[in-house]
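DM from R.C. (forwarded with permission)

"hey, sorry to bug you on a friday — could you get me a structure for this? deadline for the figure draft is monday and I only need the backbone to look sensible"
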Amino acid sequence: MSEAAVVHPRRGLLLFAHGARDAAWAEPFEAVRLRVQLLRRDVDVTLAYLELMPPDLPTAAKDLVQRGCRQIDVVPLFLGTGGHVRRDIPLLLQQLHQQHPGTQWTLRPPIGEHPDVVEAIARAAAGPTA
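My reply, with the result:
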């Protein structure tokens, strides 16, 4: 089989945020999603929420699977590894494994623990330098 004929599974990237009652709260997360999609044109990028806002994780995951994604990374848009990241998200991913057995689900570390994010937050918090 020629290399051109090899079909690679589509990749998905599911950004996962907490959610809030105020719809305006989601605006920065949507901006992140749009920017990630520009940076990673080779993957389908979507955004889901743990609670209070649509879409929830199962709905967003199903959408990616229906688009043909078979390798999906889940990136928690949380500052650290709290209870949601330790307990809730792994349980939700177990359910996704059961609902979509032909799909590989990979949970990445919370975005707030990435050194570049820590640096960006520190610089923003420090304010302008003299």
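R.C.: lifesaver. The beta strands are 10-17, 43-49, 69-76, 104-107.
me: no worries. The domain at 8-126 is CATH 3.40.50.1400 (Rossmann fold).
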